[in-house]
Amino acid sequence: MNFEKVLFAFFILLAMTLNFGFFYGDQTDPSQHHVYELFAAIVISLIATIMKFGDRSQVGAVLLATSLVADLQLVAAAGGLQSMR
To answer: What's the structural domain count of the chain?
Structure first.
């Protein structure tokens, strides 16, 4: 078993679950979206994005593009959450 692949998959899955955990709930109620969970989602998503730069395959390019979109949306959510509080 390749430890690098396991670590890569771990960060990918952790980023996905944190993103979903932050997203879940009423979109109009900021009290259901915790700032610390958003911070953790942003940090883990950025780590997963950096790890994806090493993959040179077509699937790797698609995963990198999706990760960049997720990072952009999380940063936008941070800005929107900050303005709502």
So the answer is: 1
